[in-house]
Amino acid sequence: MRNFFQIALRPSVVFRALKYALVVGIVLIAINHGDAILKGELSARRLFKMALTVVVPYMVSTFSSVGAIRERDPVRE
Q: pTM of the prediction?
């Protein structure tokens, strides 16, 4: 588990995940909440859901990057 966080917190992994989260998150927010945004119906609950919509692609990208790095550079004990 420690190895996971060491890899996940590498600047290259964090930066890549942030880029993907921003792009994919904006698209998903537009699809799922676009009508409410256009109507000005932004409650705290909706904003929380929109934040979670960005967190999901961040996590997917991070897990994917960590898995790829672990496959490429297996830990030797």
A: 0.85
